[in-house]
Specification:
Belongs to the small heat shock protein (HSP20) family. The protein is an alpha+beta fold. It is built from two helices and seven strands, in the order H-H-E-E-E-E-E-E-E. The longest helix is centred in the first third of the chain and has 19 residues.
């Protein structure tokens, strides 16, 4: 196939996405009030969501993050995980052949499959994995009412 006939975005989709992002940022800076900030989310943590012992458990991979840089909220029956993985200073003496690790801001909204007891939620972060344990709200299907 003649390379001159192939659109530029077909050759490098990531380069084209970066160009589009830059155009959007230029537009927003030019036409939007200064108080409004545009925050680009660089990546989304991968998650597992499962049920165990009447709890909803959410495990999110956030390698390289410090626990003080992670924020967790439960809102509208969804878990919102956001934060930032900060890149350490570049190592000038070493030659890099590849850099594939994720750095920057992240955010993930995970809808919960059941109603939960928000006030009893627990979170722990260990070895790059954030684990949330949220008790399910129990709703009695059948209630016996005493007749007086």
């Amino acid at each position: 196939m003649d390379r001159r006939l192939v659109p530029a975005f077909a050759i490098s989709p990531l380069r084209e996405l970066a160009r589009i992002e830059n155009e959007i940022n230029k537009f927003l800076k030019e036409f939007m009030p200064q108080e409004i900030t545009t925050e680009v989310v660089a990546w989304k943590p991968r998650v597992d969501v499962y049920e165990k012992d009447n709890n909803i458990v959410v495990e999110a991979e956030i390698p390289g993050a410090k626990k003080e840089d992670i924020e967790v909220k439960i809102k509208d029956n969804a878990v919102v995980i956001r934060g930032e993985v900060k890149k350490e200073e570049e190592k000038k003496e070493e030659n890099y052949y590849r850099s594939e690790r994720f750095y920057g801001k992240f955010e993930r909204v995970i809808p919960l499959p059941a109603d939960v007891k928000v006030e009893e939620a627990k979170a722990e972060y260990q070895d790059g994995v954030l684990k949330l344990t949220i008790p399910k709200a129990t709703s009695e299907k059948e209630i016996k009412i005493e007749v007086k």
